[in-house]
Amino acid sequence: MTGEPLVQAQGIRKVYGRRRVLDDVRLEVRGGEAVVLLGPNGAGKTTLLRILATLTRPTRGVARVAGFDCVAEPEAVRRRLGYVGHGPWVYDDLTALENLRFWATLGGLRAARDDLRAALAAVDLEAVADERARTFSEGMRRRLAFARLLLTRPTVVLLDEPFAGLDPRGAKWLERHLAELRARGGALLVTTHSFGRGLAVADRIAILAGGRVALDTPVGTLGADDVQRLYELHAEPAP
Amino acid sequence: MTYVRRAWIVLWKDVLSERRSKATLNGVLFFALLLLFLFAFALGPDRERLAASLPGVLWLGALLAGLVSLGRTFLAEREHGCWEGLLLAPGDKSAIYLGKTAGNLVLMLGVEAVLLALVAVFFNVDLGGALAALVPVLLLGSVGMAAVGTLFAAMTAHVRARELLFPVLLLPTLVPVLLAAVEATAAVLAGEPLGAVGAWLTLLGAADAVYLTVGVLAAEAVLEG
Predict the structure, then answer these.
(1) Which long-range contacts (CB under 8 A, 24 or more apart) does B179-186 make?
(2) Which of A56, A93, A97, A130 best tests the B interface by mutation, with the highest count of B CBs <10 A?
């Protein structure tokens, strides 16, 4: 059961120099829905996510999150948004707990120590809560980034390659938490190159190719092989 | 209240990170030591010459050490994508600027304290009598340097030639602060009371107020790029 559109990309174009990365991208994600964005490297997946996250301005078109314009009302968007991009936002010389406290306080949250520890426990980092992040692996850093989302409980979550660097246990955990987010009415837009992982969390898949959404279809009974065929058909140029 | 907490958490993070890594502090202190060592050789043992040069040496040391440390203000943010986090944190971005400025100020004051001790050793001068009057001069001068340095560090954080551009922007802007600070320091070291350098302190205070105000007003635009 899906609700109001919480993520809307309407005719988004993004041009870098003479290169048109996105051209007339149209995409919608409703509350309680998860859309997985597939596409080859350089297709513009990260650019689209950054536009929706208010980190980049579109050259043309309208991007809305939770009904707010990403260009005109970035502050309102940011209050409702959870974003995990390629960088984990981890300070090496702070402990996991201190990193979490820093981002929570900067975001205006008054998180108690128990809440911070509970968020770390949820991402399986409780044992290293007081260790400096300098020693953390890539996967641990990503889990620390997801702990931020658990604290802030955003309405809209944008994740760029969230499964990269995660071990199978971490990936399973992430799938479970993303399902919980959808269940409480949040909207989820995820980019990935892993069809299997994508299918596990998606209600719809969208394939971005040539700067446009080449395919936007419900997952339904699609399997990983079907997605692979659709991807080859829409995203990979014929030899 | 949230504004103050946000500024405080940035200050807390920067000071704690620096206390643990000492990445900037060690380099800057070694740099200051070398600088004073060279000055001590260049100026020789002539006490009159030393007395005339001391205020300039002190502030040159503080300035060059400041250039190194201020230029690294947003290094940690650049390294792990944390800049995105600062941008996406809801709320007034000037709180982040003020927290960063306060962090730089703490670091600069620490370095200046060591510089003073080194000056006393290298140049064999007794600063004890002038110390009480010297503290407000150093404080006001450092606030100005930290305020404008933090702003320019943010402006040049994503520029390819930032190591070149940062001092080119910073040094001319700091002229009023350096002028007033050196003059006030010279008078204080010559044994004049703090009241005698009121005009220089007023200039320092005014420059600090202007730089901080501009920094607070420009923080949003500068950090958003």
Answers:
(1) B179/B203, B180/B141, B180/B204, B180/B207, B181/B59, B181/B137, B181/B138, B181/B140, B181/B141, B181/B144, B182/B55, B182/B56, B182/B59, B183/B55, B184/B137, B185/B54, B185/B55, B185/B58, B185/B59, B185/B134, B185/B137, B185/B138, B186/B54, B186/B55
(2) A93
Identify the residue with better confidence: A169 or B15. Answer: B15
Structural domains of chain A, ranges and CATH numbers in brackets: 1-70+188-239 (3.40.50.300)
Residue of A61, A144, A104 whose CA lies nearest to B90: A104
Nearest to A93 among B10, B21, B90 (CB): B21
Q: Enter the tokens of residue A12.
A: 């988004």
Q: What is the pLDDT of residue A90?
A: 94
Query: Distances in Å between the alpha carbon of A147 and those of A121, A152, A153, A160, A206?
Result: 9, 9, 10, 16, 27
**Interface predicted TM-score of the whole assembly (ipTM), two decimals:** 0.89
Taking an 8 Å Cβ-Cβ cutoff, which residues of chain B contact chain A? 2, 5-6, 9-10, 12-13, 16-17, 20-21, 76, 79-82, 84-91, 96
pLDDT at position A239: 57
The pLDDT mean for chain A works out to 90
For A73, which residue in chain B has the nearest alpha carbon? B90
pLDDT at A1 over 80: no
Rounded to an integer, what distance in angstroms lies between the CA atom of residue A211 and that of residue B190?
70
Best of B84, B86, B93, B100 to disrupt the A interface by mutation (most A CBs within 10 Å)?
B84
| Per-residue pLDDT band at A176 (split at 50, 70, 90) | confident
